[in-house]
Structure formats: C-alpha cells, structure tokens
Amino acid sequence: MKKTSIVTGGAGFIGSHMVDYLISKGHFVIIIDNLSSGKKKNIQKHLKNKKAFLINCQIEHFKISQIRVKKIEFIFHFAGIGSIVPSITDPKKYIKTNVTGTLNILEQTKYIKYKKFVYAASSSCYGIAKTPTSEHHRISTVYPYSLSKFMGEQLCVHWNSVYKLPICSIRIFNAYGSRISFDGGYGAMFPVFMKQILKKRPLTIVGDGKQKRDFIHVTDLVKAFYCVAKSKKIGEIYNVGTGKPISVIKIAKILSDKIEFIQKRPGEPDITHANIKKITKHTKWRPKINMQNGIKDMVKNIDNWKNAPIWNKHKIARATKKWFEYLK
C-alpha cells in the first residue's frame, strides 16, 4: 500500500516541488491549496495520473474530515503568504494566514497518526544577523512577514512540547528555482529579473548590489525537508541554505549587462549566511546545486514568468513607499 503524505501549499513554488519529490519516492500526496498564488498547472500531471488529490481551500478553513485517510506518513506545511514587502501594508492578512492557518493545520491533524510534521519557517526571523547564522542566534522580527512566520514556528514548537507531536521546523534562507511565484506583489528578486530579461529591460538592483544572499535551490531544499521528515529527530529547528552567500550584483551580471540601481531599503541585511552544520550533522543532506546551474535551469524555463508583472524603478518606488516610511 502506498504511503500518503500531506503538502499544504502544494501547488505553490516550494510545495509543488515537494509534491514532485514525494511522488518520485512512491508517495500518494494530498495537496491543500486555495490556488491564490499556487498554480494548478504545477500539479496538473499528478492530479491527472491520480498520484495526488487537491483540496481547494484556505488553510485556516481546512477540516480533517475533508480527507478519509487515517494514517499519514508526513505533513509538510508550506501554505502561507510569502511576499515580504506587502506585509508592511496588510499585516492582518499575514497573521490570519501564516499564524491562524498554522494553528488550524496543527489542530486538525492533532488526532491522526503521522510520523513527522515539518514546518516551513523563514530565516527572516533573525533580522540583521551575525554571520554565519546558527539556530541559536537571537530573534529579531523586523517586519510583519517575519513576525508571522516566527509565530507560526512558535506554535509548532509549543505543539511538539505540550502535545508531544513529532514536529520539526526548517528556517529557509533564500529559496530560488523554477515556479517561484510572482503573484504576491513586489518582492522576490528572481521573478523580477526574469520578467525584465524577457522585456529586455534593465535589471533593478537594490542599493549597490554588493549585498550577499544565501540562495538555496528548490530541488536541494525539498530534499532537506524530506531528510528531516525521515530523521528520528523531533522538536528540532534547522537552518537550510548553502552556506555560500553570493552577491546580487554577481548574479545580475551573469544574467544581463543592462543594470540600474535603486535606493537601498531599510531593515534588510547586507548578508544572509546560513550555518548549516546542524542539519548536515543530524541528516545525510547536503546542498548540491551551485548558482551557475541553478540560473541555467531558470533561464531554460524563463517563459514561466511571461505573465509576471514588469517592474521598473518608478513602480518599485510606489510599491515600497510605506516600507521606507515605517522602517526608516
């Protein structure tokens, strides 16, 4: 009999890759997604082949009665709002989905049998951190998105401690790869760049571009989630990145020779750099995809972003006006 796992947000960027990987490992997957930012086309082949089943609902409204399986292998919780900048103007929306939604999935699955629940947390909880950043670093939630993701993680930690549920959390650094979403307003660098390349526009670089980010390819990332799910460790928090930060300007120059610089945003670190010693010690996981190959994969699939909005410095200034106002 096939193992059955649940992936919330399973039609989205990371979630759909998680679904792909689980199915490659012989799992049947129950996907919970309201398709607000996730795309049905990301999972269509699995639905057609009856290797997955979609429950179309908001995560805060999900009921366990919507599934009939009594025994679940793993639960991967990706459902949530991921765009950082818009959280400054609509924090209530982020708390509702990222916190209340997490509470609901924890409560709805509390009385079914499962081997591991893995929460998708964010490294943004560290704020402007000392690097390389370990899991013991102080928490500094600078904007509503980071607060909402950390509150969701705290619920998971509490449910593990009080209800003895087998839960772990992964603090994702800077995920990238095919299917990365562009529907959440101005935010993630790569969708902005891909559309600018398609339209032959200059790439907009925040600040001088010397800021570095610890980018982790989505293929490596979902394997980390799977390794943590398979591990006997419970109640653990793990950083996941490559441990090899790269500057934004270096990435931009790989992609294009047309570049323009825009004002640096307050509240954003000059570098993100994951200390990944803990996850590599507790599991067999190692990141394998380097930035050059990761970028080649994205460029090969660049048409994924043909319907993305085109951003220029004027539109970005309007979209980030409140960010500058509140975080200056």
UniProtKB/TrEMBL annotation:
Pfam families linked to this entry: Epimerase
Transmembrane segments: none
Gene3D superfamilies: NAD(P)-binding Rossmann-like Domain (3.40.50.720), UDP-galactose 4-epimerase, domain 1 (3.90.25.10)
Pathway: Bacterial outer membrane biogenesis; LPS O-antigen biosynthesis
Start and end residues of each NAD-dependent epimerase/dehydratase domain: 6-241
Family statement drawn from the similarity comment of this UniProt entry: Belongs to the NAD(P)-dependent epimerase/dehydratase family.
Protein name: NAD-dependent epimerase/dehydratase family protein
Lineage: Bacteria, Pseudomonadati, Pseudomonadota, Alphaproteobacteria, Candidatus Pelagibacterales
